[in-house]
Design brief:
This protein is of the alpha/beta class and about 190 residues long. The protein has one domain: Hexapeptide repeat proteins (UDP N-Acetylglucosamine Acyltransferase, domain 1, 3 Solenoid). Strands 3-6-9-14-17-19-20 form a 7-stranded mixed β-sheet. A hairpin with an 8-residue loop joins strand 11 and strand 12. The radius of gyration is 16 Å and the shape is globular.
């Protein structure tokens, strides 16, 4: 697991300072506009078109991946999705740091992947980012929350509405807030 990255250490977010450079903010604004105009309205079967749109803005998403039209992606260059990975309806992919979704992994409707937080002990409330990795065949169930720095091993399951701020071992099932190990999952 990588170390947290402090962003904008010369800026105090509480004083309304920007945490990211202008170029970064402009790319995000351009992507949001493009998503609304080119992808947000598209029917489910246009998944390859949506993949083309996010890849045009720097994402690295496999052509067979599925991104729902209602998914919200914060910064495409930090998104990586392998073959047949799925980012479901109304998901929030707050990719302030890299978010990787492995092959055949599913992020279900309403789930939230959040790769950023703030240093609450810093008077400047500095932004801190850490990557998220969701292993192959893992499942983030409906309305679940995955926090910064979490690594979900291959086949791991985070149950509906569960909250994880720590990594989940491969082929295990976790539920609750905070997420706790419920049982092991059968391997295919």
């Amino acid at each position: 697991m990588s170390m947290p990255m402090h962003i904008g250490t010369d800026v105090a977010p509480l004083a309304r300072g920007a945490s990211f450079p202008l170029r970064h903010r402009l790319l995000r604004a351009a992507f949001q506009l493009a998503w609304v105009l080119l992808a947000r309205w598209t029917p489910p079967m246009w998944q390859r078109w949506r993949v083309l749109v996010v890849n045009a803005f720097g994402a690295r998403v496999h052509a067979s991946a599925n991104i729902a039209a209602s998914a919200r992606i914060w910064f495409p260059p930090n998104l990586v999705m392998a073959e047949s990975a799925c980012l479901g309806p109304r998901t929030i992919c707050y990719c302030m740091a890299r978010i990787e979704i492995g092959a055949h992994a599913v992020v279900s409707q309403g789930a939230h992947l959040c790769a950023g937080t703030h240093d609450i002990d810093d008077p400047a409330f500095t932004l801190v980012t850490q990557p998220i990795s969701i292993g192959a065949r893992a499942w983030v169930a409906s309305d679940a929350f995955v926090g910064p720095g979490v690594v979900m091993g291959e086949g791991a399951v985070l149950g509906a509405r569960a909250v994880s701020f720590s990594s989940l071992a491969p082929w295990t099932v976790h539920v609750g807030n905070p997420a706790r190990h419920l049982r092991d999952r059968a391997r295919p």
